[in-house]
C-alpha cells in the first residue's frame, strides 16, 4: 500500500467512524465536510501532492471578513500563532478585494505505522483547536449591526 493510499484509508475511516457526511475533492486525496456545532466550519483534508505521507488539514468559517479588518485579523493571527497551538492561523486574500479570509491550518507527517487511534486523536485535536480559534474570532462580535450585514457567507 502506498503512503497516499494509507493516508486516504485513515481519512475515510476517520470520517466514517465520526459519522461525517463528506465529499471527495476533484483529485484523489481530497476530502471535505462541514461541522455543525457549535459553529459551522468547513474542514478540508488534502494529502499533499508533493509528499504523499503529509496530510494537510484546513478549517475555515462559513464567511469572509471585511478587508478593512486585515490589521486586526493579522494581529489576532500573529498572537494566536505565538501560542503552542495545534493549528496555525493564516489571513489570506479572497477573490473579492473587499473581503479576506482566515484559515486554521495543520500539516502533519503521517508515519507508515501510525495507529488509527493516534491519527483520530490528531484530527480531533486539530478540529477542536480550529473551533476554538474561530470561536475567539467571531466575525460578528463587536461589530455594529450595520456592519454585520457586510459579512458574506461562503456556504
Task: Sum this structure up briefly.
The protein has 155 residues and is α+β, with helices and mostly antiparallel strands. Helix content is 34%, strand content 26%.
Give structural notes.
With 155 residues, the protein is of the alpha+beta class. The protein has a single domain, classed as Yope Regulator, Chain: A (2-Layer Sandwich), CATH 3.30.1460.70. Helix content is 34%, strand content 26%. The chain has four helices and seven strands; from the N terminus they run αβββββαββαα. It has helices at residues 3-17, 70-82, 116-136, 145-148, and strands spanning 23-24, 30-34, 41-47, 54-61, 65-66, 88-93, 99-109. Strands 1, 2, 3, 4, 5, 6 and 7 form a seven-stranded antiparallel sheet that branches. β6 (88-93) and β7 (99-109) form a beta hairpin. It is globular, with a radius of gyration of 16 Å. It starts with a helix and ends in a 7-residue tail after the last helix. The model is unreliable at 142-146 (pLDDT under 50).
Amino acid at each position: 500500500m502506498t503512503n497516499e493510499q494509507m493516508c486516504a484509508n485513515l481519512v475515510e475511516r476517520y470520517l466514517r467512524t465520526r459519522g461525517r457526511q463528506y465529499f471527495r475533492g476533484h483529485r484523489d486525496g481530497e476530502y471535505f465536510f462541514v461541522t455543525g456545532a457549535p459553529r459551522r466550519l468547513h474542514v478540508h483534508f488534502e494529502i499533499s501532492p508533493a509528499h504523499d505521507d503529509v496530510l494537510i488539514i484546513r478549517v475555515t468559517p462559513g464567511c469572509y471578513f471585511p478587508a478593512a479588518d486585515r490589521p486586526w485579523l493579522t494581529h489576532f493571527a500573529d498572537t494566536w500563532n505565538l501560542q503552542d497551538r495545534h493549528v496555525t492561523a493564516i489571513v489570506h486574500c479572497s477573490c473579492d478585494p473587499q473581503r479576506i479570509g482566515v484559515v486554521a491550518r495543520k500539516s502533519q507527517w503521517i508515519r507508515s505505522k501510525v495507529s488509527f487511534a493516534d491519527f483520530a486523536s490528531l484530527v480531533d485535536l486539530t478540529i477542536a483547536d480550529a473551533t476554538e480559534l474561530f470561536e475567539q474570532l467571531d466575525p460578528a462580535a463587536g461589530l455594529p449591526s450595520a456592519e454585520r450585514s457586510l459579512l458574506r457567507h461562503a456556504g
